[in-house]
Amino acid sequence: MAYKKYLNKNFAIFCGPGNNGGDGLAIARLLSLSGHAVQVFLLNSASKRSSDFDINYKCLKEVASVIIDLKEISLPSLAADTIIIDAIFGTGLNRSLDGFSKQLVEYINRLNNKVVAIDMPSGLLTDLSSKGLTAIKANNTLTFQCFKAAFLLPENEEYFGNVHILDINLHPSYLNSVETTFELVDQQFISSIIKLRKAFSHKGNFGHALIIAGSYGKMGAAVLSTKACLQSGAGLVTAHVPAKGVEIMQISAPEAMCRIDTQSEIISNIDYDLKPYTSIGIGPGIGKEKMTTSFLYQLLKDYQKPMVIDADALNILSENPDWLSLLPPGSILTPHPKEYARLFGNDMNDLEKINTALQKAHDLKIIIILKGHHTFIATPDGKGYFNTTGNAGMAKGGSGDVLTGIITGILAQGYKPNEAAILGVYMHGAAGDNAAAKYGMISMTATDLIEALKTPDLLTK
Ligand SMILES: NC(=O)C1=CN([C@@H]2O[C@H](COP(=O)(O)OP(=O)(O)OC[C@H]3O[C@@H](n4cnc5c(N)ncnc54)[C@H](O)[C@@H]3O)[C@@H](O)[C@H]2O)[C@@H](O)CC1
Ligand SMILES: [K+]
Protein backbone atom coordinates (compact mmCIF):
# COMPACT_ATOMS: atom_id res chain seq x y z
CA MET A 1 0.00 0.00 0.00
CA ALA A 2 1.15 3.55 -0.61
CA TYR A 3 1.39 4.16 3.15
CA LYS A 4 2.78 7.65 2.66
CA LYS A 5 -0.51 9.09 1.50
CA TYR A 6 -2.01 8.05 4.84
CA LEU A 7 0.64 9.80 6.92
CA ASN A 8 -0.08 13.14 8.61
CA LYS A 9 -3.84 12.62 8.26
CA ASN A 10 -6.51 12.56 10.92
CA PHE A 11 -7.94 9.18 11.80
CA ALA A 12 -11.40 8.08 12.94
CA ILE A 13 -11.20 4.56 14.32
CA PHE A 14 -14.43 2.62 14.83
CA CYS A 15 -14.05 -0.26 17.28
CA GLY A 16 -16.40 -3.12 18.09
CA PRO A 17 -16.33 -5.05 21.39
CA GLY A 18 -14.22 -8.04 20.29
CA ASN A 19 -10.59 -8.62 19.33
CA ASN A 20 -11.07 -6.76 16.06
CA GLY A 21 -12.01 -3.72 18.16
CA GLY A 22 -8.94 -4.48 20.28
CA ASP A 23 -6.80 -4.24 17.13
CA GLY A 24 -8.42 -0.86 16.39
CA LEU A 25 -7.55 0.38 19.88
CA ALA A 26 -3.94 -0.75 19.45
CA ILE A 27 -3.76 1.08 16.11
CA ALA A 28 -5.23 4.18 17.82
CA ARG A 29 -2.50 4.04 20.45
CA LEU A 30 0.32 3.66 17.92
CA LEU A 31 -1.01 6.44 15.71
CA SER A 32 -1.47 8.75 18.72
CA LEU A 33 2.07 8.04 19.90
CA SER A 34 3.38 8.93 16.46
CA GLY A 35 1.67 12.32 16.64
CA HIS A 36 -1.47 11.76 14.59
CA ALA A 37 -4.83 13.19 15.56
CA VAL A 38 -7.03 10.22 16.41
CA GLN A 39 -10.68 9.95 17.39
CA VAL A 40 -11.87 6.57 18.62
CA PHE A 41 -15.53 5.60 18.41
CA LEU A 42 -16.70 2.61 20.42
CA LEU A 43 -19.67 0.54 19.37
CA ASN A 44 -21.54 -1.47 22.00
CA SER A 45 -18.75 -0.83 24.48
CA ALA A 46 -21.04 -1.76 27.35
CA SER A 47 -21.58 -5.27 25.96
CA LYS A 48 -19.25 -8.14 26.67
CA ARG A 49 -15.74 -7.03 25.70
CA SER A 50 -13.02 -9.45 24.80
CA SER A 51 -9.91 -9.50 26.98
CA ASP A 52 -7.81 -8.16 24.07
CA PHE A 53 -10.22 -5.25 23.86
CA ASP A 54 -9.86 -4.56 27.60
CA ILE A 55 -6.06 -4.73 27.54
CA ASN A 56 -5.80 -2.36 24.60
CA TYR A 57 -8.46 -0.05 26.04
CA LYS A 58 -6.42 0.31 29.22
CA CYS A 59 -3.24 1.04 27.24
CA LEU A 60 -5.03 3.60 25.07
CA LYS A 61 -6.40 5.41 28.12
CA GLU A 62 -2.81 6.16 29.14
CA VAL A 63 -2.24 7.97 25.84
CA ALA A 64 -3.96 11.27 25.09
CA SER A 65 -6.72 10.28 22.68
CA VAL A 66 -10.38 11.11 22.12
CA ILE A 67 -12.57 8.12 22.98
CA ILE A 68 -16.27 8.46 22.29
CA ASP A 69 -19.04 5.97 23.11
CA LEU A 70 -21.36 5.90 20.13
CA LYS A 71 -25.04 6.21 20.87
CA GLU A 72 -27.74 5.47 18.37
CA ILE A 73 -28.59 9.10 17.88
CA SER A 74 -25.09 10.48 17.52
CA LEU A 75 -23.29 9.42 14.37
CA PRO A 76 -20.15 11.55 14.19
CA SER A 77 -19.49 14.08 11.46
CA LEU A 78 -16.01 13.75 10.00
CA ALA A 79 -13.82 16.02 7.87
CA ALA A 80 -13.58 14.79 4.29
CA ASP A 81 -9.88 13.94 4.51
CA THR A 82 -10.14 11.96 7.75
CA ILE A 83 -9.11 8.34 7.24
CA ILE A 84 -11.63 5.89 8.66
CA ILE A 85 -10.32 2.70 10.22
CA ASP A 86 -12.90 -0.03 10.41
CA ALA A 87 -12.23 -2.26 13.42
CA ILE A 88 -15.86 -2.98 14.22
CA PHE A 89 -16.03 -6.69 13.47
CA GLY A 90 -13.55 -9.16 12.04
CA THR A 91 -13.60 -12.92 11.75
CA GLY A 92 -15.81 -13.24 14.85
CA LEU A 93 -18.90 -11.96 13.07
CA ASN A 94 -21.37 -14.82 13.25
CA ARG A 95 -24.50 -13.31 11.73
CA SER A 96 -25.51 -10.45 9.49
CA LEU A 97 -25.45 -6.92 10.85
CA ASP A 98 -28.62 -5.41 12.19
CA GLY A 99 -29.74 -2.48 14.34
CA PHE A 100 -27.20 0.20 15.14
CA SER A 101 -24.15 -1.64 13.78
CA LYS A 102 -25.91 -1.87 10.40
CA GLN A 103 -26.83 1.83 10.53
CA LEU A 104 -23.25 2.74 11.36
CA VAL A 105 -21.85 0.73 8.46
CA GLU A 106 -24.39 2.24 6.07
CA TYR A 107 -23.43 5.69 7.35
CA ILE A 108 -19.69 5.05 6.80
CA ASN A 109 -20.42 3.77 3.31
CA ARG A 110 -22.32 6.98 2.48
CA LEU A 111 -19.30 9.13 3.40
CA ASN A 112 -16.64 9.72 0.78
CA ASN A 113 -13.78 9.22 3.23
CA LYS A 114 -11.05 6.68 2.55
CA VAL A 115 -11.66 3.51 4.56
CA VAL A 116 -9.10 0.98 5.76
CA ALA A 117 -10.65 -2.24 7.06
CA ILE A 118 -8.80 -4.26 9.67
CA ASP A 119 -8.71 -8.02 8.99
CA MET A 120 -12.18 -8.02 7.32
CA PRO A 121 -14.54 -5.28 6.15
CA SER A 122 -17.10 -5.33 8.97
CA GLY A 123 -20.26 -7.14 7.99
CA LEU A 124 -18.55 -9.51 5.59
CA LEU A 125 -18.79 -13.14 6.71
CA THR A 126 -15.53 -15.06 6.49
CA ASP A 127 -16.70 -18.47 5.31
CA LEU A 128 -20.32 -17.92 4.33
CA SER A 129 -21.92 -16.02 1.48
CA SER A 130 -22.46 -12.33 2.19
CA LYS A 131 -24.64 -11.78 -0.88
CA GLY A 132 -27.15 -9.01 -0.19
CA LEU A 133 -25.76 -8.20 3.27
CA THR A 134 -24.58 -4.82 4.55
CA ALA A 135 -20.81 -4.52 4.95
CA ILE A 136 -18.14 -1.83 4.95
CA LYS A 137 -16.88 -0.88 1.51
CA ALA A 138 -13.18 -0.41 2.13
CA ASN A 139 -10.53 1.05 -0.14
CA ASN A 140 -7.91 -1.13 1.51
CA THR A 141 -8.13 -4.16 3.78
CA LEU A 142 -5.24 -5.09 6.05
CA THR A 143 -5.76 -8.72 6.83
CA PHE A 144 -3.80 -10.97 9.15
CA GLN A 145 -1.56 -13.81 8.04
CA CYS A 146 -3.61 -15.31 5.21
CA PHE A 147 -6.26 -14.63 2.60
CA LYS A 148 -9.81 -15.22 3.76
CA ALA A 149 -12.12 -17.13 1.39
CA ALA A 150 -14.40 -14.06 1.32
CA PHE A 151 -11.74 -12.08 -0.61
CA LEU A 152 -11.71 -14.61 -3.43
CA LEU A 153 -15.39 -14.49 -4.31
CA PRO A 154 -16.49 -12.19 -7.16
CA GLU A 155 -19.72 -11.28 -5.32
CA ASN A 156 -17.66 -9.59 -2.57
CA GLU A 157 -15.56 -7.48 -4.92
CA GLU A 158 -17.04 -4.12 -3.88
CA TYR A 159 -16.18 -4.57 -0.20
CA PHE A 160 -12.50 -5.24 0.37
CA GLY A 161 -10.63 -2.98 -2.11
CA ASN A 162 -6.93 -3.80 -2.22
CA VAL A 163 -6.11 -6.63 0.15
CA HIS A 164 -2.78 -6.57 1.99
CA ILE A 165 -1.70 -9.58 3.99
CA LEU A 166 0.18 -8.67 7.16
CA ASP A 167 2.49 -11.27 8.64
CA ILE A 168 1.74 -11.36 12.38
CA ASN A 169 4.25 -14.14 12.98
CA LEU A 170 1.87 -17.00 13.64
CA HIS A 171 4.06 -20.02 14.25
CA PRO A 172 4.71 -21.99 11.01
CA SER A 173 4.04 -25.30 12.77
CA TYR A 174 0.62 -23.99 13.78
CA LEU A 175 -0.12 -22.83 10.23
CA ASN A 176 0.97 -26.21 8.83
CA SER A 177 -1.16 -28.09 11.33
CA VAL A 178 -4.37 -26.32 10.32
CA GLU A 179 -6.43 -28.43 7.92
CA THR A 180 -8.10 -26.27 5.29
CA THR A 181 -10.33 -27.06 2.35
CA PHE A 182 -8.85 -24.20 0.36
CA GLU A 183 -5.31 -23.49 -0.80
CA LEU A 184 -3.94 -20.42 -2.52
CA VAL A 185 -1.88 -21.19 -5.63
CA ASP A 186 1.10 -18.88 -5.65
CA GLN A 187 4.66 -19.12 -6.92
CA GLN A 188 5.79 -21.07 -3.84
CA PHE A 189 3.02 -23.62 -4.34
CA ILE A 190 3.86 -23.97 -8.03
CA SER A 191 7.54 -24.56 -7.30
CA SER A 192 6.52 -27.62 -5.27
CA ILE A 193 4.77 -29.12 -8.32
CA ILE A 194 6.96 -28.27 -11.26
CA LYS A 195 9.38 -30.85 -12.62
CA LEU A 196 12.71 -29.84 -14.09
CA ARG A 197 13.53 -30.84 -17.67
CA LYS A 198 16.58 -33.09 -17.53
CA ALA A 199 19.53 -32.29 -19.81
CA PHE A 200 19.47 -35.69 -21.50
CA SER A 201 15.78 -35.67 -22.29
CA HIS A 202 14.27 -35.96 -25.78
CA LYS A 203 10.82 -35.20 -27.19
CA GLY A 204 9.61 -38.68 -26.29
CA ASN A 205 9.98 -37.83 -22.60
CA PHE A 206 7.39 -35.09 -22.75
CA GLY A 207 4.44 -36.93 -24.16
CA HIS A 208 2.20 -36.52 -27.17
CA ALA A 209 -0.89 -34.33 -26.83
CA LEU A 210 -3.93 -34.64 -29.08
CA ILE A 211 -6.13 -31.57 -29.46
CA ILE A 212 -9.56 -32.31 -30.98
CA ALA A 213 -10.92 -28.96 -32.00
CA GLY A 214 -12.44 -26.73 -34.67
CA SER A 215 -15.24 -26.64 -37.21
CA TYR A 216 -15.85 -24.54 -40.33
CA GLY A 217 -15.79 -20.90 -39.18
CA LYS A 218 -14.31 -21.78 -35.77
CA MET A 219 -10.81 -22.88 -36.72
CA GLY A 220 -9.38 -20.00 -34.66
CA ALA A 221 -10.29 -21.84 -31.45
CA ALA A 222 -8.46 -24.95 -32.71
CA VAL A 223 -5.38 -22.94 -33.69
CA LEU A 224 -5.24 -21.09 -30.36
CA SER A 225 -5.45 -24.25 -28.28
CA THR A 226 -2.94 -26.11 -30.46
CA LYS A 227 -0.42 -23.27 -30.37
CA ALA A 228 -0.80 -22.93 -26.60
CA CYS A 229 -0.34 -26.69 -26.25
CA LEU A 230 2.90 -26.45 -28.25
CA GLN A 231 4.16 -23.85 -25.79
CA SER A 232 3.29 -25.73 -22.65
CA GLY A 233 6.25 -28.08 -22.87
CA ALA A 234 4.62 -31.09 -24.57
CA GLY A 235 7.06 -33.13 -26.70
CA LEU A 236 4.65 -33.63 -29.62
CA VAL A 237 1.29 -32.12 -30.48
CA THR A 238 -1.28 -33.40 -32.97
CA ALA A 239 -4.44 -31.51 -33.88
CA HIS A 240 -7.48 -33.47 -35.05
CA VAL A 241 -9.43 -31.09 -37.27
CA PRO A 242 -12.15 -31.14 -39.96
CA ALA A 243 -10.74 -31.62 -43.49
CA LYS A 244 -11.33 -28.00 -44.44
CA GLY A 245 -9.30 -26.83 -41.46
CA VAL A 246 -6.06 -28.63 -42.24
CA GLU A 247 -4.34 -25.90 -44.25
CA ILE A 248 -5.29 -23.30 -41.68
CA MET A 249 -3.77 -25.44 -38.94
CA GLN A 250 -0.62 -26.41 -40.83
CA ILE A 251 0.14 -22.81 -41.78
CA SER A 252 -0.67 -21.39 -38.35
CA ALA A 253 1.06 -24.06 -36.27
CA PRO A 254 3.72 -25.83 -38.39
CA GLU A 255 5.17 -27.62 -35.34
CA ALA A 256 1.90 -29.54 -34.89
CA MET A 257 0.90 -32.64 -36.85
CA CYS A 258 -2.64 -33.02 -38.15
CA ARG A 259 -5.22 -35.79 -38.09
CA ILE A 260 -7.88 -35.14 -40.67
CA ASP A 261 -11.53 -35.89 -40.00
CA THR A 262 -13.57 -37.64 -42.68
CA GLN A 263 -16.01 -34.73 -42.57
CA SER A 264 -14.97 -31.50 -44.20
CA GLU A 265 -16.58 -29.01 -41.80
CA ILE A 266 -17.04 -30.77 -38.48
CA ILE A 267 -15.48 -33.40 -36.28
CA SER A 268 -17.26 -36.72 -36.58
CA ASN A 269 -15.05 -39.68 -35.72
CA ILE A 270 -11.62 -41.03 -34.92
CA ASP A 271 -10.49 -44.03 -36.97
CA TYR A 272 -7.01 -44.47 -35.52
CA ASP A 273 -5.47 -45.84 -32.36
CA LEU A 274 -5.46 -43.36 -29.46
CA LYS A 275 -2.81 -45.28 -27.46
CA PRO A 276 0.18 -43.20 -28.65
CA TYR A 277 -1.38 -40.05 -27.22
CA THR A 278 -0.60 -39.29 -23.60
CA SER A 279 -3.38 -36.72 -23.27
CA ILE A 280 -6.47 -35.50 -25.11
CA GLY A 281 -8.03 -32.04 -25.06
CA ILE A 282 -11.44 -31.74 -26.70
CA GLY A 283 -13.95 -28.99 -27.28
CA PRO A 284 -12.68 -25.64 -28.59
CA GLY A 285 -14.79 -24.63 -31.60
CA ILE A 286 -16.25 -28.10 -32.28
CA GLY A 287 -19.90 -26.96 -32.38
CA LYS A 288 -22.81 -29.19 -31.43
CA GLU A 289 -23.74 -30.90 -34.72
CA LYS A 290 -25.38 -34.30 -34.35
CA MET A 291 -22.36 -36.22 -35.66
CA THR A 292 -20.03 -34.32 -33.33
CA THR A 293 -22.34 -35.05 -30.41
CA SER A 294 -22.42 -38.79 -31.20
CA PHE A 295 -18.65 -38.81 -31.62
CA LEU A 296 -18.20 -37.27 -28.16
CA TYR A 297 -20.49 -39.91 -26.68
CA GLN A 298 -18.46 -42.70 -28.31
CA LEU A 299 -15.17 -41.17 -27.14
CA LEU A 300 -16.44 -40.90 -23.57
CA LYS A 301 -17.54 -44.55 -23.68
CA ASP A 302 -14.31 -45.89 -25.16
CA TYR A 303 -11.53 -43.75 -23.74
CA GLN A 304 -10.34 -44.52 -20.21
CA LYS A 305 -7.63 -41.94 -19.52
CA PRO A 306 -8.18 -38.39 -18.20
CA MET A 307 -9.22 -35.83 -20.83
CA VAL A 308 -9.45 -32.05 -20.83
CA ILE A 309 -13.01 -31.05 -21.74
CA ASP A 310 -13.90 -27.52 -22.76
CA ALA A 311 -16.30 -25.22 -24.63
CA ASP A 312 -18.76 -27.01 -26.94
CA ALA A 313 -17.83 -30.39 -25.45
CA LEU A 314 -19.09 -28.99 -22.13
CA ASN A 315 -22.22 -27.64 -23.77
CA ILE A 316 -22.93 -31.07 -25.26
CA LEU A 317 -22.44 -32.57 -21.79
CA SER A 318 -24.85 -30.07 -20.26
CA GLU A 319 -27.51 -31.14 -22.80
CA ASN A 320 -26.82 -34.80 -21.92
CA PRO A 321 -26.16 -34.77 -18.16
CA ASP A 322 -26.23 -38.59 -17.97
CA TRP A 323 -22.96 -38.64 -19.87
CA LEU A 324 -21.14 -36.96 -16.96
CA SER A 325 -20.86 -40.40 -15.38
CA LEU A 326 -18.92 -41.58 -18.47
CA LEU A 327 -16.09 -39.11 -17.87
CA PRO A 328 -12.82 -40.96 -17.29
CA PRO A 329 -11.61 -40.39 -13.70
CA GLY A 330 -9.18 -37.49 -13.49
CA SER A 331 -10.75 -35.65 -16.43
CA ILE A 332 -10.53 -31.88 -16.25
CA LEU A 333 -13.55 -29.69 -17.04
CA THR A 334 -12.87 -26.02 -17.74
CA PRO A 335 -16.21 -24.17 -17.72
CA HIS A 336 -16.59 -20.38 -17.72
CA PRO A 337 -19.44 -19.13 -15.50
CA LYS A 338 -22.15 -19.60 -18.17
CA GLU A 339 -20.98 -23.10 -19.09
CA TYR A 340 -20.83 -23.91 -15.38
CA ALA A 341 -24.42 -22.72 -14.91
CA ARG A 342 -25.56 -24.86 -17.86
CA LEU A 343 -23.80 -27.90 -16.40
CA PHE A 344 -24.58 -27.66 -12.72
CA GLY A 345 -27.36 -25.10 -12.33
CA ASN A 346 -28.06 -21.43 -11.99
CA ASP A 347 -29.14 -19.39 -8.99
CA MET A 348 -26.20 -20.15 -6.79
CA ASN A 349 -24.19 -17.64 -4.81
CA ASP A 350 -20.43 -17.86 -5.19
CA LEU A 351 -19.92 -20.12 -2.19
CA GLU A 352 -22.67 -22.48 -3.31
CA LYS A 353 -20.99 -22.65 -6.73
CA ILE A 354 -17.71 -23.56 -5.09
CA ASN A 355 -19.27 -26.15 -2.81
CA THR A 356 -21.21 -27.68 -5.70
CA ALA A 357 -18.00 -27.88 -7.74
CA LEU A 358 -16.26 -29.65 -4.83
CA GLN A 359 -19.15 -32.07 -4.45
CA LYS A 360 -19.35 -32.85 -8.20
CA ALA A 361 -15.56 -33.20 -8.42
CA HIS A 362 -15.72 -35.71 -5.57
CA ASP A 363 -18.72 -37.66 -6.85
CA LEU A 364 -17.58 -37.83 -10.49
CA LYS A 365 -13.84 -38.17 -9.60
CA ILE A 366 -13.00 -35.27 -11.90
CA ILE A 367 -11.42 -31.85 -11.67
CA ILE A 368 -13.57 -28.79 -12.23
CA ILE A 369 -11.95 -25.48 -13.08
CA LEU A 370 -14.31 -22.58 -12.45
CA LYS A 371 -12.82 -19.82 -14.55
CA GLY A 372 -12.94 -16.27 -13.15
CA HIS A 373 -10.83 -13.60 -11.46
CA HIS A 374 -9.46 -16.02 -8.88
CA THR A 375 -10.03 -19.19 -10.91
CA PHE A 376 -11.10 -22.00 -8.57
CA ILE A 377 -9.98 -25.60 -9.04
CA ALA A 378 -12.07 -28.29 -7.35
CA THR A 379 -10.37 -31.67 -7.03
CA PRO A 380 -11.80 -35.13 -6.34
CA ASP A 381 -10.14 -35.37 -2.92
CA GLY A 382 -12.32 -32.52 -1.64
CA LYS A 383 -9.70 -29.78 -1.81
CA GLY A 384 -10.13 -26.50 -3.66
CA TYR A 385 -7.44 -24.21 -4.99
CA PHE A 386 -7.71 -20.48 -5.72
CA ASN A 387 -5.33 -19.14 -8.34
CA THR A 388 -3.50 -15.86 -7.79
CA THR A 389 -2.35 -14.97 -11.31
CA GLY A 390 -4.35 -13.37 -14.12
CA ASN A 391 -6.31 -10.20 -14.75
CA ALA A 392 -9.44 -8.76 -16.35
CA GLY A 393 -7.66 -8.34 -19.71
CA MET A 394 -8.06 -12.11 -20.13
CA ALA A 395 -11.85 -11.88 -20.15
CA LYS A 396 -11.96 -12.18 -23.93
CA GLY A 397 -12.79 -14.75 -26.60
CA GLY A 398 -10.03 -17.28 -27.12
CA SER A 399 -8.56 -17.15 -23.59
CA GLY A 400 -10.30 -20.41 -22.69
CA ASP A 401 -9.00 -22.15 -25.82
CA VAL A 402 -5.49 -21.19 -24.73
CA LEU A 403 -6.08 -22.65 -21.26
CA THR A 404 -7.31 -25.94 -22.73
CA GLY A 405 -4.17 -26.18 -24.86
CA ILE A 406 -1.88 -25.45 -21.93
CA ILE A 407 -3.50 -28.00 -19.59
CA THR A 408 -3.60 -30.70 -22.30
CA GLY A 409 0.09 -30.09 -22.95
CA ILE A 410 0.99 -30.33 -19.27
CA LEU A 411 -1.10 -33.48 -18.81
CA ALA A 412 0.71 -35.05 -21.78
CA GLN A 413 4.02 -34.69 -19.94
CA GLY A 414 2.99 -37.06 -17.16
CA TYR A 415 1.80 -34.60 -14.52
CA LYS A 416 -1.10 -35.89 -12.41
CA PRO A 417 -4.45 -34.37 -13.42
CA ASN A 418 -4.66 -32.24 -10.22
CA GLU A 419 -1.18 -30.88 -10.86
CA ALA A 420 -1.82 -30.27 -14.57
CA ALA A 421 -4.97 -28.30 -13.76
CA ILE A 422 -3.31 -26.18 -11.07
CA LEU A 423 -0.10 -25.60 -13.01
CA GLY A 424 -2.00 -24.84 -16.22
CA VAL A 425 -4.28 -22.28 -14.61
CA TYR A 426 -1.34 -20.58 -12.90
CA MET A 427 0.72 -20.52 -16.12
CA HIS A 428 -2.21 -19.14 -18.12
CA GLY A 429 -2.71 -16.34 -15.59
CA ALA A 430 1.00 -15.57 -15.41
CA ALA A 431 1.07 -15.24 -19.21
CA GLY A 432 -1.96 -12.95 -18.92
CA ASP A 433 -0.12 -10.75 -16.44
CA ASN A 434 2.86 -10.52 -18.77
CA ALA A 435 0.60 -9.68 -21.72
CA ALA A 436 -1.17 -7.01 -19.68
CA ALA A 437 2.17 -5.47 -18.68
CA LYS A 438 3.21 -5.34 -22.33
CA TYR A 439 0.00 -4.41 -24.15
CA GLY A 440 -2.46 -3.31 -21.46
CA MET A 441 -5.61 -5.09 -20.32
CA ILE A 442 -7.84 -3.41 -22.89
CA SER A 443 -5.96 -4.37 -26.04
CA MET A 444 -4.32 -7.68 -25.16
CA THR A 445 -5.72 -10.71 -26.97
CA ALA A 446 -5.63 -14.49 -26.63
CA THR A 447 -2.80 -14.56 -29.18
CA ASP A 448 -0.82 -12.28 -26.86
CA LEU A 449 -1.30 -14.84 -24.07
CA ILE A 450 0.37 -17.48 -26.22
CA GLU A 451 3.18 -15.08 -27.07
CA ALA A 452 3.56 -14.21 -23.37
CA LEU A 453 4.01 -17.88 -22.44
CA LYS A 454 7.47 -17.48 -23.95
CA THR A 455 8.93 -15.87 -20.83
CA PRO A 456 11.93 -17.57 -19.19
CA ASP A 457 10.88 -16.74 -15.62
CA LEU A 458 7.13 -17.30 -16.14
CA LEU A 459 6.88 -19.84 -13.34
CA THR A 460 9.64 -18.61 -11.07
CA LYS A 461 8.92 -14.91 -10.49
N1 LIG B 1 -5.11 -15.41 15.53
C1 LIG B 1 -6.17 -14.64 15.59
O1 LIG B 1 -7.28 -15.13 15.48
C2 LIG B 1 -6.02 -13.15 15.73
C3 LIG B 1 -7.14 -12.36 15.66
N2 LIG B 1 -7.09 -11.04 15.73
C4 LIG B 1 -8.29 -10.21 15.62
O2 LIG B 1 -9.40 -10.79 16.22
C5 LIG B 1 -10.51 -10.73 15.36
C6 LIG B 1 -11.49 -11.74 15.77
O3 LIG B 1 -11.87 -11.37 17.06
P1 LIG B 1 -13.17 -11.91 17.81
O4 LIG B 1 -13.24 -13.38 17.70
O5 LIG B 1 -13.16 -11.31 19.15
O6 LIG B 1 -14.35 -11.35 16.91
P2 LIG B 1 -14.73 -9.90 16.40
O7 LIG B 1 -13.95 -8.86 17.05
O8 LIG B 1 -14.72 -9.97 14.93
O9 LIG B 1 -16.25 -9.76 16.84
C7 LIG B 1 -16.70 -10.46 17.96
C8 LIG B 1 -17.75 -9.70 18.72
O10 LIG B 1 -18.82 -9.31 17.90
C9 LIG B 1 -20.06 -9.89 18.36
N3 LIG B 1 -20.86 -10.14 17.18
C10 LIG B 1 -20.73 -11.12 16.28
N4 LIG B 1 -21.61 -10.96 15.27
C11 LIG B 1 -22.31 -9.84 15.57
C12 LIG B 1 -23.37 -9.13 14.91
N5 LIG B 1 -23.87 -9.54 13.76
N6 LIG B 1 -23.84 -8.02 15.47
C13 LIG B 1 -23.33 -7.57 16.62
N7 LIG B 1 -22.35 -8.19 17.30
C14 LIG B 1 -21.85 -9.31 16.77
C15 LIG B 1 -19.64 -11.10 19.15
O11 LIG B 1 -20.64 -11.46 20.06
C16 LIG B 1 -18.37 -10.58 19.80
O12 LIG B 1 -18.66 -9.78 20.91
C17 LIG B 1 -9.89 -10.85 14.00
O13 LIG B 1 -10.71 -10.42 12.97
C18 LIG B 1 -8.67 -10.00 14.17
O14 LIG B 1 -9.00 -8.63 13.98
C19 LIG B 1 -5.83 -10.31 15.86
O15 LIG B 1 -5.87 -9.59 17.04
C20 LIG B 1 -4.59 -11.14 15.74
C21 LIG B 1 -4.67 -12.60 15.96
K1 LIG C 1 -13.09 -4.82 10.50
From TrEMBL:
Residues 186-460 form the YjeF C-terminal domain. Residues 1-176 form the YjeF N-terminal domain. The keyword NADP applies. AMP binds at residues 371-375, 400. Binds 1 potassium ion per subunit. Its cofactor is K(+); Mg(2+). It catalyses: (6S)-NADPHX + ADP = AMP + phosphate + NADPH + H(+); (6S)-NADHX + ADP = AMP + phosphate + NADH + H(+); (6R)-NADHX = (6S)-NADHX; (6R)-NADPHX = (6S)-NADPHX. InterPro entries: Carbohydrate_kinase_pred_CS, CARKD, Nnr, Ribokinase-like, YjeF_N_dom, YjeF_N_dom_sf. Catalyzes the dehydration of the S-form of NAD(P)HX at the expense of ADP, which is converted to AMP. Together with NAD(P)HX epimerase, which catalyzes the epimerization of the S- and R-forms, the enzyme allows the repair of both epimers of NAD(P)HX, a damaged form of NAD(P)H that is a result of enzymatic or heat-dependent hydration. Bifunctional enzyme that catalyzes the epimerization of the S- and R-forms of NAD(P)HX and the dehydration of the S-form of NAD(P)HX at the expense of ADP, which is converted to AMP. This allows the repair of both epimers of NAD(P)HX, a damaged form of NAD(P)H that is a result of enzymatic or heat-dependent hydration. PANTHER family: ATP-DEPENDENT (S)-NAD(P)H-HYDRATE DEHYDRATASE, ATP-DEPENDENT (S)-NAD(P)H-HYDRATE DEHYDRATASE FAMILY MEMBER. In the C-terminal section; belongs to the NnrD/CARKD family. In the N-terminal section; belongs to the NnrE/AIBP family. This is ADP-dependent (S)-NAD(P)H-hydrate dehydratase.
